[in-house]
Specification:
The chain is α+β, with helices and mostly antiparallel strands. It has 8 helices and 7 strands; from the N terminus they run E-H-H-E-E-E-E-E-E-H-H-H-H-H-H. Helix content is 51%, strand content 22%. A 7-stranded antiparallel beta sheet has the order 1-7-6-5-4-3-2.
Length: 304
């Protein structure tokens, strides 16, 4: 285990008992934790025996990873801090993880509970597995942090995890759609093809002529490609949706001023821009206060 362990910490405005129940009850745990689709506790022969469990993670298209886990120890401090230690793993070759250990800790604070985890694991497949882990480990850290924020919002605001994840999923899909739309319309008709319609439209709206208008179309195409990149890297998607709610009607009106007959064409700018305008409104509404992995602290204090 030479790689840096995964660490995630988040404050939750709730008592330790409340957070403990939401994280130690398997039926509640599997609802908010993105890493697991189901968790099943196995019967114990005695109360002193460690709690063993089985878990499944569905990857889609009928593919799933099944593994095992065991609570190898729990203890409480005089100040109320609780710690639960885990040992986990899977024998399935599809998983980069072979075996690992970690813990959950619940620390009382003036405003509730500081909930944190740290875990590490061994990878399979030797050098290839360690190379694959350069991508897999950040994804696992992101999934853990997002799940912690979903848990926090469930406890503090009452929004069910399923609803939160649906909003996150829709936001991702809409983001990828707008990335594709701006990239395609900037690259294909304006830079690669230099569509006569694009050239004619810009020429009608400005005093540019000849090579200048073609250069202008290319510049607009470049700006649209840049805006496509903004959709990927800019975190506050709500701002971008608000901008498009203003921009799409302007673009539609401009197209109709230049060529009113364009509204009679199949898949014309009126219907196309109206669809994107509605999607922008939907995106603006669902992107408010989304759960985010950035809400969590990812580095233990005093560790760099």
């Amino acid at each position: 285990m030479l790689a840096k362990p995964i660490y995630v910490e988040i404050p939750i405005q709730a008592t330790i008992d409340e957070v403990w129940e939401m994280t130690q009850n398997p039926k509640l745990h599997e609802q908010w934790d993105l890493r697991f689709s189901s968790i099943t506790y196995l019967p114990k022969n005695s109360n002193d025996e460690p709690q063993s469990f089985l878990y499944e993670t569905k990857l889609g298209c009928g593919v799933k990873v099944a593994g095992w886990g065991k609570s190898i120890g729990m203890h409480s401090k005089k100040d109320g801090t609780k710690t639960s230690s885990l040992h986990f793993g899977t024998d399935q070759k599809i998983s980069p993880i072979s075996e690992g250990k970690g813990y959950w800790q619940y620390i009382p604070t003036n405003k509730g509970t500081k909930f944190l985890t740290q875990y590490d694991y061994d990878v399979r497949f030797g050098s290839f597995g360690r190379l694959l882990d350069l991508v897999f480990r950040p994804v696992m850290g992101w999934a853990t942090a997002l799940s912690f924020d979903v848990l926090k919002r469930w406890i503090e605001k009452g929004e069910l995890p399923r609803t939160q994840y649906i909003r996150v999923f829709i936001n991702v899909i809409v983001t990828m759609l707008f990335f594709f739309v701006w990239l395609y319309h900037g690259l294909v008709p304006k830079i690669i093809v230099k569509s006569p319609e694009e050239v004619s439209m810009l020429s009608s709206l400005t005093s540019l002529e000849g090579t200048a208008v073609i250069k202008g179309v290319e510049i607009i195409g470049f700006l649209e490609i840049v805006f496509a990149g903004v959709w990927v890297f800019y975190r506050k998607k709500r701002h971008l949706h608000a901008l498009q709610i203003i921009v799409f009607p302007i673009l539609t009106i401009s197209a109709l001023i230049v060529s009113p007959s364009i509204s009679l064409h199949p898949f014309n700018p009126v219907t196309f821009n109206a669809s994107l305008w509605i999607l922008s409104i939907i995106g603006f509404l669902i992107s408010r206060d989304l759960p985010s992995a950035t809400s969590c602290k990812r580095t233990r204090k005093g560790v760099t």
